[in-house]
């Protein structure tokens, strides 16, 4: 009998090929060491949770260019790092954020998102249960957005060198032929819409950190926007689109205004703000226009199509509270102002640093 | 939002601005006056509301708002910021502060920069939170950066009392608390500032009551209306000042009746006088030393005094030469008339503290008021040169 046919050998080899299991309760250095323990972690937490699309046999995912090219004529490619603290918060967690953030960065170019990568930096001591919850949540977010995670990397760093878990996702998508979305297309008579409440994510995170000792259950608005974008692009000639993230609406509009050299006037009373967020901001001396979102986008559309764009947005689950919030104008170029409703207009600039609570 | 929206109703606002326009025109005509009426809003909170809601734009040209010194962060002198950083960088210290003090520049660093270099500096929303941190970290020394006028003094006083009652021996106060009345007096004594009336501090008065301002009417004959912080509060207070001018009378009046009682808050005042005493003098950024304007812990609470525990440098450091915050705080200069406004001094690179807090007059102008300034090309330095 040849050695490799020996029943013991066969049994051991069969076991060697079994998907690994993590037996520790927390992440340890060995999980990033390149050996069996790392293999177990990847099998158990990455492949098991994210599904078979993850290509683990090689160090890179491979796709057929011709197949991708069926969807359009340009590739969109983006990357983003996620370091949110706490990693679990009302309305989401770092995993859902890492998928949706990258999906949204692709979607606002008009691209249909396809593939994501997932780089994990884990701090020693992170409970495996929390990691599993994050991975499950990434899988759910991928399923909702219709994308797959196809490649990744896992590193473990000593305690204190990271805060529980950092995730980097890169993504590729395909822009359909004929879709041209960009700040340079904004015209001085365009109308600006947003798909819902301002500042939910920022308020949710500030409250969840617990440092301010305010009790509220404002949920983050973390959501994938590719479905909404697709619906809009099918009906409306969207000139420009940007997802509203850190820096809030104010930063987003200022970026668009500066790149297009078009002026914008925001109607303060038209801004959709959740009651709880408005109250939260009043107490802390914050302004919802500067608070972060993770499931919002602004679109610039021709005035004649604004009402149609509003209908399309409101018909979508992530656009029910959509509103027309600003109008473009030629002068002064690159400047965003806000109409206060008191018959006065003031500058709405982007914030310098972080928003810090005022004293009194 | 209840209790907020009704004080921001634009329709009522327009009625008030119409009334202000009528009263101002009649007054100017009757007095044959061409020089604008100068009204000082004392508080940073007023300044913030004025710019956030663009009230300066809807007022007639004959009313000029002068932005007062009531922004505690703005009047914090360089030397005290250095002292705070000195304490924050001592071994075993957790330094706790209100958020908007973090960016105030000291002579070398701000607290935010000291934090980036490793100091354990934490933002709190109330001194009570600082005391909680002290309880949770008995092996560390927790210092609270006490800042603000009479509005925030009672909460600090009660926290120190609480610490004493509980026997928390690792909680310390670095008091930079200040009082508004001596400062208003210093401004009234300043020869080159001709003010016609005041919008008085709402939240300070909620504590100290209406009486401490009586000298402003008796000695200086200026109308003084204690004002709330919503846009309609500010507009109504201006109407009340104009009525006084029109009727040639002068009184301390209360627009902010929903919060302010004539006698203030006796319970809060008792806690303050129990814990604090007036310093002989205290230095203010831009305004120099003002007698009896600062508060320190009384002897009975000396064990909680960070100034006694740490050998702080306590140097008086001159404001940067280019900075004209003092003139702005006294209302002598409009923010944009400062030599470095919007160029060397911006919210990103503040030279003076008026550019730091969103309640600072310079930051308010820079963030919200630029448009107004652009539309009045003949105002400011150009007009005087």
Query: Whole-number average pLDDT of chain B?
Result: 90
- Summed up, the helix count of chain B is 16
What sort of overall outline of chain A do the alpha carbons produce when their principal axes are compared?
A: globular
Multimerization status:
heterodimer
Q: How many domains of chain A?
A: 2
**Rg from Cα of chain A:** 23 Å
How would you name the CATH homologous superfamily of the largest domain in chain A? PurM-like C-terminal domain
Describe the biggest sheet of chain A? 7 strands, mixed
Given the helix and strand composition of chain B, which structural class is it?
Answer: alpha/beta
Describe this structure in words.
The complex is a heterodimer of chains A (360) and B (385). Chain A is α+β, with helices and mostly antiparallel strands and 360 residues long. Chain A is built from ten helices and 13 strands. Chain A folds into two domains: 24-175, 60s Ribosomal Protein L30, Chain: A; 183-347, Phosphoribosyl-aminoimidazole Synthetase, Chain A, domain 2, CATH 3.90.650.10. In chain A, the strands form three sheets. Chain A has a seven-stranded mixed β-sheet with strand order 8-10-7-11-9-12-13, with helices on both faces. In chain A, strands 1-6-4-5 form a four-stranded mixed β-sheet. In chain A, β2 and β3 form a beta hairpin. In chain A, α4 (94-107) packs parallel to α5. The model of chain A has no long low-confidence stretch (mean pLDDT 91). With 385 residues, chain B is α/β, with parallel strands linked by helices. In chain B, the strands form four sheets. In chain B, strands 2-1-7-8-9 form a five-stranded parallel β-sheet. A four-stranded parallel β-sheet of chain B has the order 4-3-5-6, with helices on both faces. In chain B, β5, α7 and β6 (171-177) form a beta-alpha-beta unit. Chain B is globular, with a radius of gyration of 21 Å. Classes of the chains: A alpha+beta (360), B alpha/beta (385). The A-B interface holds A 211-213, 269, 275, 278-279, 282, 284-285, 332, 335, 337, 340-347, 349, 352-353, 356-360 and B 1, 4, 8, 10, 13-14, 17, 45, 48, 51-58, 72-73, 98-103, 112, 122-125, 129, 147-149, 151-152, 203, 231, 346-348, 357-359, 367-372, 374.
């Amino acid at each position: 009998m040849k050695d490799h046919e020996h029943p013991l050998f066969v049994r051991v080899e069969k076991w060697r090929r079994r998907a690994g299991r993590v037996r520790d309760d927390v992440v340890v250095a060995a999980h990033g060491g390149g050996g069996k323990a790392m293999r177990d972690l990847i099998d158990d937490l990455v492949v098991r949770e994210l599904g078979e699309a993850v290509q683990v046999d090689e160090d890179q995912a491979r796709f057929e260019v011709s197949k991708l090219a069926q969807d359009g004529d340009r590739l969109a490619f983006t990357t983003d790092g996620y370091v949110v603290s706490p990693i679990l918060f009302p309305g989401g967690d770092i995993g859902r954020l890492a998928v949706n953030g990258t999906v949204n960065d692709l979607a606002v170019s008009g691209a249909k998102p396809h593939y994501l990568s997932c780089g994990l930096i884990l701090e020693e001591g992170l409970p495996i249960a929390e990691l599993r919850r994050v991975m499950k949540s990434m899988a759910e977010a991928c399923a909702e957005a219709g994308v797959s995670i196809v490649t990744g990397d896992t590193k473990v760093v000593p305690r204190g060198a990271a805060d529980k878990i950092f995730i980097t996702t890169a993504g590729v998508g395909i822009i359909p032929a004929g879709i041209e979305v960009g700040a340079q297309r904004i015209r001085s008579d365009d109308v600006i819409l947003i798909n819902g409440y301002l500042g939910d994510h920022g308020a949710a995170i500030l409250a969840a950190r617990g440092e301010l000792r305010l009790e509220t259950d404002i949920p983050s608005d973390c959501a994938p926007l590719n479905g909404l974008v697709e619906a809009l692009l099918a009906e409306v000639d969207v000139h420009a689109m940007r997802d509203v993230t850190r820096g809030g609406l104010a930063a987003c509009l200022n970026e668009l205004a500066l790149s297009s050299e078009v002026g914008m006037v925001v109607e303060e009373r038209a801004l959709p703000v959740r009651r709880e967020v408005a109250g939260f901001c009043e107490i802390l001396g914050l302004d919802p226009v500067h608070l972060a979102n993770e499931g919002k986008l602004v679109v610039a559309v021709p005035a004649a199509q604004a009402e149609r764009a509003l209908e399309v947005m409101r018909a979508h689950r992530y656009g029910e509270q959509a509103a027309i919030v600003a109008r473009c104008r030629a002068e002064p170029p690159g400047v965003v102002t806000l109409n206060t409703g008191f018959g006065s207009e003031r500058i709405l600039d982007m914030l310098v640093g972080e928003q810090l609570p005022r004293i009194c | 939002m209840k209790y907020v929206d009704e004080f921001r109703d634009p329709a009522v606002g327009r009625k008030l601005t119409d009334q202000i326009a009528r009263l101002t025109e009649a007054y100017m005509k009757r007095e044959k006056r061409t020089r604008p009426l100068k009204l000082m809003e004392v508080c940073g909170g007023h300044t913030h509301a004025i710019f956030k809601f663009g009230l300066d734009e809807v007022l007639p040209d004959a009313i000029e708002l002068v932005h007062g010194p009531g922004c505690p962060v703005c009047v914090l002198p360089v030397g005290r910021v250095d002292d705070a950083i000195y304490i924050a960088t001592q071994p075993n210290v957790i330094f706790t502060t209100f958020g908007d003090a973090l960016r105030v520049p000291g002579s070398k660093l701000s607290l935010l920069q000291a934090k980036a270099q490793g100091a354990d500096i934490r933002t709190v929303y109330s001194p009570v939170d600082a005391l909680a941190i002290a309880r949770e970290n008995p092996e560390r020394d927790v210092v609270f950066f006490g800042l603000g006028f009479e509005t925030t003094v009672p909460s600090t006083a009660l926290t120190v009392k609480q610490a004493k009652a509980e026997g928390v021996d690792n909680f310390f106060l670095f008091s930079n608390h200040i009082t508004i009345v001596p400062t208003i007096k210093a401004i009234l004594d300043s020869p080159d500032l001709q003010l016609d009336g005041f919008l008085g501090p709402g939240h300070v008065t909620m504590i100290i009551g209406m009486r401490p301002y009586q000298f402003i009417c008796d000695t200086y004959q200026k109308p003084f209306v204690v004002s709330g912080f919503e846009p309609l509060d500010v507009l109504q207070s201006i109407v009340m000042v104009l009525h006084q001018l029109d009727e040639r009378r002068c009184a301390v009046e209360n627009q902010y009746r929903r919060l302010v009682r004539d006698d203030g808050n006796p319970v809060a005042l008792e806690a303050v006088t129990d814990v604090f005493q007036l310093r002989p003098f205290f230095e203010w950024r831009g305004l120099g030393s003002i007698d009896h304007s600062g508060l320190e812990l009384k002897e009975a609470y000396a064990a909680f005094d960070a100034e006694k525990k740490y050998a702080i440098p306590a140097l008086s450091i001159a404001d940067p030469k280019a900075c004209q915050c003092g003139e702005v705080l006294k209302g002598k200069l409009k923010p944009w008339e400062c030599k470095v406004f919007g160029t060397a001094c911006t919210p990103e690179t503040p030279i003076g503290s008026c550019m730091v807090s969103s309640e600072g007059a310079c930051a308010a102008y820079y963030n919200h008021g630029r448009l107004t300034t652009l539309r009045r090309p003949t105002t400011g330095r150009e007009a005087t040169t």
